[in-house]
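Hey L., structure's done. Input below.
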Amino acid sequence: QVQLMESGGGLVQPGGSLRLSCTASGFTFSNYAMSWYRQAPGKERELVATVGRIGGVTNYADSVKGRFIISRDNAKNTVYLQMNSLKPEDTAVYSCMVLIFRLYWGQGTQVTVSS
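Output:
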């Protein structure tokens, strides 16, 4: 079965960096685009970034352009989200997602940006 497992979240000061990882199993990873979403308390879930099957095509939310980088390693079945210049408003639960006839989500990892 499809499984997605995120890691790498934590507490970081404003201006700091974190790298999130999402390791996938149960499907042919290299055949599918992968996305990162986030949900802050009291807010709707929002799309942060998407990477194409081989990593050459990426898209970002305006709020993270120039600060976040999405990438993937198909040999490791893993998608990454490098987050730089973090702001308090980036605080949220970050989840990875894949669409294979339906949406599959990981359990999420908490990112807290605070001094």
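The first strand starts at residue 3 and ends at 7. The chain has a mean pLDDT of 97.

-- N.
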